[in-house]
Amino acid sequence: HDQASNVLNDIIEFRDDMPSILADVFCILDIETSCLEEKSKRDQFMQLVLACLNLVSDTLLKERLDPETLESLGLIKQSQQFNQKSVKIKTKLFYKQQKFNLLREENEGYAKLIAELGQDLSGNITSELILENIKSLIGCFNLDPNRVLDIILEVYECRPEYDEFFVPLIESYMYMCEPQTLCHILGFKFKFYQEPNGETPVSLYRVAAILLQHNLIDLEDLYVHLLPSDHTILEEHRREIGEAKQIVRKLTMVVLSSEKMEEKEKEKEKEEEKMEKPPDNQKLGLLEAMLKIGDWQHAQSIMDQMPPFYATSHKPIALALCQLLHVMIEPLYRRVGVLKGAKGAPVPPLQNKRAPKPAEHFEDLRKEVFNMLCYLGPHLSHDPILFAKVLRLGKAFMKEYQLDGNKQEDREKMEILFSCLLSITDQVLLPSLSLMDCNACMSEELWGMFKTFPYQHRYRLYGQWKNETYNSHPLLVKVKAQIIDRAKYIMKRLTKENVKPSGRQIGKLSHSNPTILFDYILSQIQKYDNLITPVVDSLKYLTSLNYDVLAYCIIEALANPEKERMKHDDTTISSWLQSLASFCGAVFRKYPIELAGLLQYVANQLKAGKSFDLLILKEVVQKMAGIEITEEMTMEQLEAMTGGEQLKAEGGYFGQIRNTKKSSQRLKDALLDHDLALPLCLLMAQQRNGVIFQEGGEKHLKLVGKLYDQCHDTLVQFGGFLASNLSTEDYIKRVPSIDVLCNEFHTPHDAAFFLSRPMYTHHISSKYDEL
């Protein structure tokens, strides 16, 4: 035994786990020798173990060997007593119910804790003092620290006005806990309300938002405890898009009236079901609480994990973000946006030092405000007051932007801000107007800013609004379908007799969605020319913005590349172009619509060598200035044309167009302001030959002759308009001499003489007066 003990002692020096292995071996030998009836082997085993007691600790042997063997070895006094003690310990460990320190089990300690937290905190009581008292209570009554933290959060929920007390208290308390403990307790609270009809209290959202803002918990850790999952949200968003497209398909199908009524009733029932009780979305609830306390950074992180505009499509979120924007723009709006003499309702600032800083200057808008507006998107429609404030800020910025005295650095900043303003207009303001229900005031407010933009920028925005915006969001898809459906209803019933009531309906529809409405009306005018007069008369209830949009829609309809400008026989101009030209002349004469875009369009078409659109200029000049081109004149008309302007107007034309003074002045101003008078004259003069030598090769001879005559007639008509409406000084200043016309501009000689004739007449009259 001694030899074995010495060998094992040598081996232990090389292996640290040797005692444990020896104990296992002794355990197996113990079982084997106890089963054998040979007493000698049992005695030898006992002597071996006794010799190795210095190699294996008593603790290991007590774990592995039987109590009887341990008693024989002298390691324990009595095996029976050892067995009883072992059973008691195991029962306590495995079978006895563990106490969780519930409130009713230690009611005195928790009662004192609640009394400590619920006392009046208005005096000299600080969070440090309360924390020391809480520590004493935990030690005295053996309270569970996690349960204590849970109670602190509960009391904080009930006393939200004491942020400055509870936040430092929780922050200090967290030094005694694991970092994740607070997040797990909050997550458990949220999970408690995730039952089918559970409703998470607003107070819990607020507490979670404040703790997030003070970085006491991480958003990523709390986010996983909230329902619904991101996948469920994405599925819901896709379903909404699918439903919107389904509505569009149903509206475009031809359905019998009885079936249509049934469909509408079903849709109404579905909408009512949705409105009854929306499922509790904890992520949106937390987001709303963040926006209310001004925690934009974390709110932005949550919105980034959702589909675009999903969060703000829920009205409480949109209103909370709108309220935050009110606070953000308040100082700047008070300085530059409030109308003279108006007081307005001041917006108090957030009582939160961690909230974003409000904008004091236009440059500050780029930091947070524009970003917030982009997240809000079309749902700015929920707050028309904020909509008007943003527009007034835009208008004030444009006044500053148009000043010439800015330095180069300031100018570059201004250019960046102007680009941002255009983006906000495209992504937020125009889509929001589409979702507003017939708000003429907002339309006029928008025009107040739009009229400061060049028409090129305005038309680009209208193009985006009409062709792209309505496809970006389920609500806008539905609105587009509803507007077209309503426009069809009105246009089917529009006649000369019911112009007033139909005009009012058109006006109401146009306040929010002019692009869609006018696109449909113009498509009907192109098909049915008998609609031109009633439509023109019915447009008197539009806003200034709507008239500008109408001008854009007309130009877009004229520029449609899918429509042929000739009829199938290739000898006459298409009837849709003639109808649009006639409509242009009538509508531009009757209403104060800006002409610059249309005139520039005609000039661009002439530059491109296309003379079909001269028909538009011809109609506009004829209706607005009363100057008519007659193909077959009577002798009396020819004689009248030799007289002055009054005799020409009275006897020279078949149509008696009266009261053209205002409209002809508007046409003249548009031509002079945009320097289009001379370019149009020169382009028409050059295009006469272009019709024959450039366009004529592929066209029918009859059509070429008609286009040549139209070009010549329009030139005569336009030249006559300039001669009669421009003062002699203006005419001489703008029209160059005959040699410049011929040599530099390559104007045909007859056209050059025609344009120079008023100047020669003036020179002759001046010379005659001198003599």
TrEMBL record:
Every THO complex subunitTHOC2 N-terminal domain range: 506-581
Single GO molecular function: mRNA binding
One of the Pfam families matching this protein, by short name: Thoc2
Coiled coil segments of this chain: none
GO annotation (BP), single: mRNA export from nucleus
Segments forming domain THO complex subunit 2 N-terminal: 3-343, 360-504
Domain of life per record: Eukaryota
CC per GO annotation: THO complex part of transcription export complex
Region (Disordered): 259-281
Biased composition (Basic and acidic residues): 259-280
The protein, known as: THO complex subunit 2
Native species: Micrurus corallinus (Brazilian coral snake)
